[in-house]
Amino acid sequence: QTTLQDQIKQSEQNLSAQWTVLQQNNEVIAAEQMLKAQESDLEDLSRSTNVSLSIFDSVLQPIIDSCTKDAISSGKSWIFQNSNSLECNRLMANYLNFRVI
């Protein structure tokens, strides 16, 4: 009787642990899919606006690394020179958000 109850208790604990792992895996998969969708959206916007994300990234990196007045000024100038449409603005805002998260 006690052994059977112990086995049932152990089985319930195992099922609970498996459920927890499955939920964690689902969260990881969902986060990965959201990241891929964001990257795809950014790439599409980059192509449609002819704004290179690699160049934008190279402008942002000095700001991230040192946060000096010169780096910020240079980045701000680049952004204003390349923000010539609503879609460009959307790309830059989304990319900044993507980099922060």
Quick overview:
By secondary structure, this protein is mostly helical.
Helix/sheet category:
mainly alpha
Provide the β-strand percentage band.
under 5%
Helix proportion: over 70%
Give the biggest beta sheet.
none
How many DSSP H or I helices?
A: 4
What is the chain-wise order of helices and strands? HHHH
- In angstroms, what separates the terminal alpha carbons? 54 Å
Average per-residue pLDDT, rounded, comes to 93
Q: Tally the beta strands.
A: 0
What would you report as the Rg, rounded to the nearest angstrom?
24 Å
Shape: elongated
Low-confidence stretches: none
Please give a structural write-up:
The chain is mainly α. The chain contains 4 helices and no strands. Helix 1 packs antiparallel against helix 4 and helix 2 packs antiparallel against helix 3 (69-82). It is elongated, with a radius of gyration of 24 Å. The N and C termini lie far apart (54 Å). 5% of the residues are buried.
